[in-house]
Design brief:
Layout (H helix, E strand, L loop, with lengths): L1 E7 L8 H4 L2 E8 L6 E11 L1 H7 L9 E2 L3 E9 L11 E4 L9 H4 L7 H9 L9 E3 L2 E5 L9 E5 L3 E3 L6 H21 L7 E5 L3 H12 L4 E6 L2 H9 L4 E4 L5 H8 L4 E6 L4 H9 L1 E9 L13 H6 L3 E4 L7 H13 L9 E5 L4 H10 L4 E5 L1
Parallel strand pairs: 4-8, 11-12, 11-14, 12-13, 14-15, 15-16, 17-18
Antiparallel strand pairs: 1-2, 1-4, 2-7, 3-5, 3-9, 3-18, 5-6, 6-10, 7-8
Helix pairs in contact: 5-6, 5-11
Length: 374
């Protein structure tokens, strides 16, 4: 079938993207699903830093590539190999497909699926297939999803069925921002009620983590960012304290306000400077978690003696250490109970043709979560 999609032909385009147009809205040929795959009619797709990092070249991927990975839609067609979905089901995309058989999957850690990671790196579906062409040329899939498109052919292992009553533009945010941010709080760090938490980097993932910390019952939730408007917003959704990281003494201020530092600090900016700040404001015996994705060349260093003498913990978190089929329904239930107002993170609704302008806003920090609505 012929559809419209946003395709990236080369990385590293000059800013602003509204002028350089790194994403072209092209007509592509989408093949139908193969064994174990599903055709999904896209409803909404969020703009995320993981997309931006491919556009600007921070995370190299094969091109041409149809971008987009945080999304929700409606099942249009199922084929043999898929017996638990039907046409009309509402689904959320997950940006790492899980094979269910490799060692990490067998250990209950689908975010670390080895075949899924290999497929994402190569720009294929979990099966190894590529289902997109443009004028006869093969186009790569982005994280097994390629959501900036009217339809997508995806592995059954890349989607989770959800309640039909949840608006799909809101549901899209659960596939990346919420899974990653909330999961870092409740799965990776296992933040207990009454604890002190700091979130560094208040993008969509960071603010989702902040909502997760509030929902988990953290007594002190410290927001840290470079932008005062985001700090003010963070206080409106539950932050008890806010500090601007541009201040040279930001770490000292946080430690003074929290009697020596927080028990859990989360780096969600994808920046070495943010990670260094997160480590500095973690108290003795505390845990520093990073779920940000800096360029592969970025390196973080720390005094090893402090790690030992202060019994520090440093942890990585990918997709919030989530089991999506378990966690997505849980997080949606918290949202519908009013305990985790994810909809407040949705600041812009766009048309597909406006996607380049949307990535300018994301780069400039002028949006939290933007969603392309189909």
């Amino acid at each position: 079938m012929k559809i419209k999609a946003a395709v990236l032909d080369s990385m590293g385009a000059a800013l602003p993207y509204a002028q350089s147009r790194p994403l072209s809205i092209d007509e592509i040929e989408l093949e139908g699903p193969g064994h174990g795959e599903v055709l999904v009619k896209m409803a909404a797709a969020g703009l995320c830093h993981s997309d931006l990092s491919v556009i600007n070249g921070d995370r190299p991927r094969p091109v041409p590539m149809a971008l987009g990975h945080e999304a929700a839609g409606v099942v249009e067609e199922v084929v043999p190999g898929v017996d638990d979905l039907a046409k009309g089901d509402h689904v959320v995309m997950v940006f790492v497909p899980s094979c269910g058989h490799c060692l990490p999957c067998s250990e209950g850690r689908p975010a670390l699926c080895e075949p899924g990671a290999a497929a994402n790196t190569k720009g294929t579906l979990l099966s190894g297939a590529r289902r997109i062409k443009r004028k006869g040329e093969t186009v790569h899939h982005h994280l097994g999803v390629s959501a900036f498109a009217e339809y997508a052919t995806v592995s059954r292992r890349s989607i989770v069925k959800i309640d039909r009553e949840l608006p799909l533009d809101e549901a899209a945010l659960f596939g990346c921002a919420v899974l990653t941010g909330v999961g870092a709080i409740v799965n990776t760090a296992r933040v207990p009620a009454g604890s002190t938490v700091a979130v560094i980097g208040l993008g969509g993932v960071g603010l989702a983590a902040l909502l997760g910390a509030v929902a988990a019952g953290a007594a002190r939730v410290v927001a840290v960012d470079l932008a005062d408007d985001k700090l003010e917003f963070a206080k409106k959704i539950g932050a008890t304290d806010a500090f601007n990281a541009r201040k040279d003494n930001c770490a000292d201020e946080v430690r003074a306000a929290t009697a020596g530092g927080v028990e859990f600090a989360f780096e969600l900016a994808g920046s070495v400077k943010a990670m260094e700040l997160a480590y500095k404001i973690t108290r003795r015996g505390g845990t520093t978690v990073t779920a940000g994705l800096p360029p592969p060349t970025a390196n973080f260093s720390f005094p090893q003696v402090g790690l030992v003498a202060e019994e520090r913990t440093i942890k990585g978190s990918y997709i919030g250490t989530c089991v999506p089929v378990r966690d997505l329904p849980r997080y949606i239930a918290l949202y519908r109970q009013g305990r985790m107002p994810v909809n407040k993170l949705l600041t812009h609704r766009l048309k597909l043709a406006e996607v380049n302008e949307g990535f300018d806003r994301l780069h400039e920090g002028k949006a939290i979560r933007q969603v392309v609505v189909f």
